[in-house]
Amino acid sequence: MTLTENEIADLTRHNIEVWNRCAASYTSNFEVLTRGAIATLLDLANVGKGTSLLDIGTGPGTLIGPAIERGARVSAIDIAPEMVDQAKSRHPGIDITTADAASLPHSDATFDAVTIGFCLHHVADARAVLSEAHRVLRPGGRLSFAVWAPQEDLQAFGLAFGAVVDIVELGDVPDLQPPAIATTPADYEDLLTEMGFEQPSARVLELSWELADGSSMFVGFDGFLDLSDQSPDLRDAVRRAIDDQISKRVETDGLAHLPNPAVVAAASKPR
Ligand SMILES: C[S@@+](CC[C@H](N)C(=O)[O-])C[C@H]1O[C@@H](n2cnc3c(N)ncnc32)[C@H](O)[C@@H]1O
């Protein structure tokens, strides 16, 4: 399914609103989970000393610190200005730009590596983003990305969504969803080949969200789903429902371990 130009504009506007709302708290909720993919993404993109790396959909700069620690020269972009502000204050002096991944401001063949952490499944046109990643990579350069595994496997997100939809009418969430990109690792490998990459590889990466209680998960989904217009009673009910579900899953180490697997994929631009 491809979207019309108007639908792409609507979805892009919606993404900017959602991620601006999530920016201030992202490092204490969703990033606690997505951090589990950083080392794999950097390994798959061969990021090491001297690598020039572009991180697309960087959010608050999730991959930037670990890439710098490896000796990489990092640039990053994100479409949400408030995410870019967070990333800049966390990583002063790094080239971080507000830009749409479907239309990158960089010249052809600029980077040795491109990483895209948990962004591709939100964009209106994932093929346009992959095509831009291909354009800005040098011949022989490496791309890696992470997306969430199919919804039915995401126990952490399922717990939160379940608590919300049991209690709240989500009237404001637009019907328009990003078109599905692919499902299985093999589908992602086919997509990378179709987009002109070679040596594609993809696999499931087991991640889990480890939580002592529901407070940070509530804050994350409050921003993501925009529950701010709900009454204080309904918001409290959602918060308690999430807490309740998590308390049932807490193990002897004092934490609930909620599986939320990703698919990680990588490929090279032909020389
Ligand atoms: C789930 S966050 C991922 C942040 C971080 N990379 C991580 O691994 O946790 C998705 C990010 O993608 C950004 N994003 C969504 N659509 C985008 C687009 N078209 N171009 C650039 N960034 C986009 C959002 O603003 C948000 O910061």
Write the layout of secondary structure elements.
Layout: H1 5-22, H2 30-34, H3 38-44, E1 52-56, H4 64-69, E2 73-78, H5 81-90, E3 95-98, E4 111-117, H6 126-136, E5 137-148, H7 155-167, H8 185-194, E6 198-205, E7 208-211, H9 215-225, H10 232-249, E8 256-259, E9 262-268
Parallel strand pairs: 1-2, 1-4, 2-3, 4-5
Antiparallel strand pairs: 5-9, 6-9, 7-8
Q: Give the termini separation.
A: 31 Å
Backbone CA Rg: 18 Å
The dominant shape is: globular
Bound molecules: S-adenosylmethionine
Look at the structure and give the mean pLDDT: 95
Could you state the order of secondary-structure elements as H and E? HHHEHEHEEHEHHEEHHEE
Number of strands: 9
**Multimer state:** single chain
CATH fold call: Rossmann fold
Number of domains: 1
Which percent bin holds the helix content?
Answer: 40-55%
Helix-strand category: alpha/beta
How are the strands of the biggest sheet laid out side by side? 3-2-1-4-5-9-6
Describe this entry's structure for a reader:
With 271 residues, the protein is an alpha/beta fold. The protein has one domain: Rossmann fold (3-Layer(aba) Sandwich). It contains ten helices and nine strands. The strands form two sheets. The chain has a seven-stranded mixed beta sheet, sandwiched between helices. It is globular, with a radius of gyration of 18 Å. It starts with a helix and ends with a strand. The model has no long low-confidence stretch (mean pLDDT 95). It binds S-adenosylmethionine (SAM). The site of S-adenosylmethionine has 22 residues, from helix 1, helix 2 and strand 2. S-adenosylmethionine binds at residues 15, 19, 30-31, 34, 57-59, 62, 77-80, 83, 100-102, 117-119, 122-123.
